[in-house]
Amino acid sequence: MDGGHLGVKFVGDRHLRKEDPRLLTGRGRYVGDIALPGMLHAVLLRSPHAHARIRRVDAARARAYPAVVDVVCFADLGAAGRALPMVPPHAELRGHNFSALAGDRARYVGEPVAAVVAESRYAAEDARELLEVEYEPLPSAQTLAPGAPAVHEEIPDNVAGRVTLARGDVEAALRAAPRVASLRLRIGRGGGQPMETRGLVADWNAALDQLTVWASSQVPHQIRQFVADLLDLAPHQVRVIAPDVGGGFGAKLIVYPEDVLIPFLARRLARPVRWIEDRLEHMLAATQEREQEHEVTVGFDDAGRLLALRDHFVHDTGAYTPRGLVVPLLTASMLTGPYRIAAVESSFESRYTHRVPVTPYRGAGQPQAVFAIERVLDLVARETGRDRAQVRLANLVRAEDMPWDTGLPNYRGSGHVVLDSGDLPSVLRRALESARYDALAAEAAAARAQGRLVGVGVACYVELTGVGPFESARVRVDPAGRITAFSGATTQGQGLETTLAQIAADELGVTPEDVTVIAGDTAGVEHGTGSFASRAAVVGGSAVALAARDVSAKARLLAAKALGCVESELEQAGAAFADRRRPERRVTFAELARLAGAATAALGVEPGLESTRFFQPTDMAYSSGAHVALVELDALSACVRILGYWISHDSGRLINPLVVEGQIQGAVALGIGSALLEEITYDEAGQLLAGSYMDYLLPTATDVPTMAIEHLETLSPLNPLGLKGVGESGALPVPAVLAAAIEDAVGPAGGRVTRMPLGPARLLDLLPPAPLLPGGGFLADDRPFSKLVKRVVFLALLSLIGPAMSAAVEGACCG
Amino acid sequence: MRPAPFEYFAPRTVEDALDLLARHGGDAKLLAGGQSLVPMMNMRLVRPAVVVDLNRVAALGDVREEAGRLRLGALVRQHALELDGRIAATAPLLAEAAPLIGHLQTRARGTVGGSLVHADPAAELPACMIALDAVFHLRSRRGQRACAARDFFRGLLATALAPDELLAEIEVPGAPVPRPGHGFAEVARRHGDFALAGACAVLALDAAGVCRHARLVIFGVGDGPHLARATAGLVGERPSAARLAEVGRATAGEIDARGDLHATAEYRRRVAAGLAARALGSAATRAEVA
Amino acid sequence: MTARPGATAHDIAVIVNGTERRARVIPRMLLADVIREEWGLTGTHLGCEHGACGACTVLVDGEPTRSCLVFAVQADGCRVDTVEGLAGDGPALHPLQEAFRARHALQCGFCTPGILMTLVAYLRLHPAPSETEIREALSGNLCRCTGYQHIVQAALDEAAAGWTAATSA
Fold first, then answer.
1. CB neighbours of B123 closer than 8 A, spacing ≥ 6?
2. Looking at beta carbons, which residues of chain C come within 8 Å of B120?
3. B54-58 mean pLDDT
4. Does A322 touch chain B (CB under 8 A)?
5. Dihedral angle at the C-alpha atoms of B78, B83, B84, B90, nearest 10 degrees?
6. Tens digits of per-residue pLDDT, C7-52?
7. Distance from the A133 Cα atom to the nearest Cα atom in chain C, whole angstroms
């Protein structure tokens, strides 16, 4: 494997993480751990109505409560109350964004209406109860059907945008197709749900005229920009730091009202202010995603080849569009996934509802696209009587087709979705081999013949990764010899402190332990984008590589000058160079940095042993993968148990396979949650029904199986190290593969899976009609010691299935 | 979320606790394990002006076994049901249900009495206690009284406990004779969650294999635990799988099932029928070898 | 003493990681808040504040306990052990922490202290658990990052090595 010009030592290594000792010993520093002298505590009053006019906010009793310092509502914000900008804009978007506090109208339950600031969190919550707000509740839009009440007055049809993407003439192709079939699919809302909720600490330093903001965020540079704009400050007056962040998953991807409000409060009160979101607030007010209703029509032939695909969907965008049309554009543009389809039309309507806004969470519109196309493939397989894996192989883009232009515009509008590299049939074959697919399918069929509901599913995906516009890196050797790599990306658990250090170490000829990575601090790099869309390692890593390469080159140049030799005579040993001919003559990085610090014109270089570089990807890099799942449903309760799970993936060059495995496993777990456990539901009045962890069920250790992961690496041509993102990969095909396995388990007499998630009632509806067996459940049996008999037969089947199965753990998950 | 303010007392004796209850009445809440009460207080769904912490009343934490009867102080922690051999010996149903009650952390602190008094319709312990013919000893400053478990649960989160009373002790009779068996089965969305439906059963057969005693309790389906009426027909018969299944179905039909976010009423009733048959089947199997 | 209900302060003394700590608390102060804010031990985290996620798990008198569901005043006279006490004073990590690092059993680290404390208590009582038993023991701790697989492997590694079980409760 080759990488940086100095030879790869650490990229590709299962390097243990540098951040772990700190995090394991409780010395992580999350925003809730930051305590500043004189710090105040803010809590927010949120609208209890999905749609209401806010007539009056009476803060008198709240202000009078002991230890309360201030109460702020929209009228107090002034210019800071302007709507936050929307990113990115789109020609078709009729967009609206929220402001730091709701003004005359609340548009979702949970929209912030007022802030109470007090000496303690406890007092602030007490005082919040004394706020008197006069609301005039209004009818609210809780459905995607036309005719719902308007969320924004000048958009009476609630359409935030309508887009059609097309390749070829799909109508003609459908008419010409030998066979045509249709599906209606529905996916429900869910959320990222990081274990750490959102939060900020803001501190206005009057002496420096500077605002420092610690934010549990994926986008500190964006926060800086929005705060500077809305608070009328220059960018250099605002420093935003994402400290240790306890997970993001998209929930911390946008700039929220609170991200402007809390800095505003700190400035107004001239005292530091801390706001930590509580979990119930997070359930209400953190953005959500996934809800779409699809109508898909496919034209195909008897060999199972896809000839035409038309998908129209309605997308629920919630009350505002902070991320414009990004999510439905991702779904629409990624519809064909890894498959070759000549004629495609993918269109959507994004509709406003009086619900919390929809912005990407792990997967970002792609799980919906994967669900649609994979359901289509299973349908085609069923209709043509062909094996589901074979139908996929027949339609997959092949290695020789790469780069493959899908013909659909990408979500950024910067070109088409072009799969840059990969060998999709090999990826699928590797997963099938790993799972012993043919034997597995046969064993599942044998179990079904015995009355058990056992099934196998397979699903493939490609994932869009490494989005621009850019990421930044500044690599610096200081006069003490410390090497620091500053990145515009942020850490949220994905190991950047280690992986970026691995990259820098290879370029610089040192070890990862010699490089300190500081991510997510706007003081570290002036421009940055952040961590989302599986981009941090790809784009951030590429920028670090470029900057470190520059530093290495400059160090060699300076070393040659300092040692009076030519660069080809230099020998590097760690952070020092020696003259090969006279090895006692050495110069360290520290000495070179001091030399560079006083660079004269004669030295011929600019001061500083450092470099700031940006990586601006010319296009997205596409990862790919295939999952195989073995499930069993309980005949009585319809509970799903995942008995085995096999993954193959191609995410380009792996910087750290250990980190990659963790990312995939975590994303699959989140996918299992979105398929079987997690559903955000609202009542007709827009009240959240799944309002706490009693009702919104996250997967636990007993719900997630042990997974086998196979790595393939086809390097991306789009960046210097051949990287592709992987952070979201695991989540993309999970609903699809579980749907397929469940359908296989219930057999032809059972139901078809057309919606996600699948709770107990929906699973029950899928079971084939059958007389309820006397004992119920698995292998119901009339004889005494029936349980023993069941156990023996089950174990016998397990031994037939072999090592792959016995390595799997029964992840019991009654969806 | 943080609770509203309250005054706190930590009495050391039952008498002191009862005095506090008598004095503060409806303004006071008793704090045992806190696994149900404190979340509600943090969410400000309940806001007692006074909290009487029972955790320092040592007398309430005893486990005693007398003449084959178990006497559990209300503050006995739920994990004692798994760990204390006397409980497993006298009332194996409790030991079987215990690992499915919540999680490790909640069982370490949550109490037997607390779960009973909270009376969540999907909780395991109320149902088990009814199946075991347990008797609850309630105390107030006015005196004490015994209440059969089957009479204690009065509907959704409601019990027979008066505002000035506390549940002091749970008395569990020994296993029915001569050949006892127990069974337990539940379905939950995730391990440790409240049951969508569950069943516990206690049977006794005689030397000839004829059923002499049958209790079946379904939980998670209605507003509270439901003691089956249909089991009456099992007494005097030799149980068969088909008969047990019939009893299970009939029992499920006795319940006014409720639907919620997690499962419909129909789902609960269907699953309850099957679980009842399973629990009865386990009980019969165990009794056969007893 | 003021007339406002709940304002009576209580003095508590708690043995925290082997050292006596004191605090003056009002009744509604959560143990988690006193540990974090009063005693500066911010390793214990609050993920949900309603007893569902397990991030706040500490040991109270050796028992794994959700510190968001205990009022600080209740901990008077008790032993409380937090993640900061696991590694001791030197640079070496506790064997369970080492196992976590070796297996990449943490990502963002927010749930990790609660999981470590749960496992320490569990492995002392159950030195030779099966994979299923470990998963069940962890069912009260939510992790959104890892998918649990590496956590389970680390716990099995450490159970096999036997260090945690050998230490006294």
1. B101, B115, B194, B219
2. none
3. 98
4. no
5. 80
6. 899 999 999 999 999 999 999 999 999 999 999 999 999 999 999 9
7. 25
**Coil, helix or strand for A562?**
helix
Rounded to a whole number of angstroms, the distance from the CA of B156 to the nearest CA of chain C is: 21
- Nearest chain C alpha carbon to B39: C50
Q: Tell me the mean pLDDT in the region A111-137.
A: 98
Q: What is the mean pLDDT of residues A142-165?
A: 96
> Alpha helix locations (H) across A454-606?
496-508, 541-563, 589-597
Structure tokens at C62: 């050796």
Q: Write out pLDDT tens, residues A410-450.
A: 999 999 999 999 999 999 999 999 999 999 999 999 999 99
Asked whether the beta carbons of C78 and C34 are under 8 A apart, the reply is: no
What is the reported pTM? 0.95
**ipTM of this complex > 0.95?**
yes
Cis peptide before B178 (omega within 30 of 0): yes
**Chain C closest CA to B66's CA: distance in Å?**
28
CB contact under 8 A, C140 and B4: no
Alpha-carbon distance A498 to A495, whole Å? Answer: 6
Could you report the per-residue pLDDT of B236-274, keeping only the tens digit for each? 999 999 999 999 999 999 999 999 989 999 999 999 999
Q: What are the tokens at A7?
A: 């030879």
Is some CB atom of chain B closer than 8 A to the CB atom of C9? no
Buried b / exposed e across A681-719, counting CB within 10 Å, b at 16+? ebeeebbbebbbbbbbbbbbbbbbbbbbbbbbbbbbebb
- The alpha-carbon gap from B289 to the nearest alpha carbon of chain A, in Å, equals 10
Q: Given the structure tokens 């799909």, which residue do they identify? A: A170
Neighbour order of strands in the sheet with A105-106: A105-106, A52-58, A132-137
Of C27, C30, C66, the CB nearest to B105: C66
Mean per-residue pLDDT, C101-118: 98
Residues of chain B positioned with their CB less than 8 A from the CB of A129: 44
CB environment A285-315: b (16+ within 10 A), e (fewer): bbbbbbbbbbebbbbbeeebbbbbbbbbbbb
Could you tell me where the DSSP H helices lie in A525-646? 541-563, 589-597
Length of chain B equals 290
Cβ contact B261–A690 (<8 Å): yes
Distances (CA, A) of C10 to A261, A767, C33: 36, 58, 15
Interface check for B6 against chain C (CB to CB < 8 A): the answer is: yes
- DSSP assignment of C63-110: EEEEGGGSBGGGGTT-EEE-GGGTS-SSSPPPHHHHHHHHHT--SS-S
B288 neighbourhood in chain A, CB within 8 Å? 784
Q: Which chains reach chain C with 3 or more Cβ–Cβ distances below 8 angstroms?
A: A, B
Nearest residue on chain B to C75, alpha-carbon basis: B55
Q: pLDDT digit string (tens) for A91-110?
A: 999 999 999 999 999 999 99
Out of C5, C28, C122, name the one closest to residue B104 (CB): C122
First-residue to last-residue Cα distance in chain B: 52
Task: Test C116 with A24 for CB contact under 8 angstroms.
Answer: yes
Whether the per-residue pLDDT at A631 is higher than 50: the answer is yes
The answer to whether the Cβ–Cβ distance between B103 and C68 falls below 8 Å is no
Query: How many whole angstroms separate alpha carbon A173 and alpha carbon A300?
Result: 9
Beta-bridge partner residues of A104:
none
Tokens of residue A374, six digits: 């994979």
**Residue A404 bridge partners (DSSP):** A419
> Residue A704 and residue A645: Cα distance in Å, rounded?
10
Residues 40-59 of C with CB under 8 A from B: 49-52, 54, 57
**CB-CB: which of C100, C148, C152 is closest to A669?**
C148
Q: Are A735 and A671 in contact (CB under 8 A)?
A: yes
Provide the pLDDT for residue C167. 67
Rounded Cα distance between B263 and C93, Å, is 46
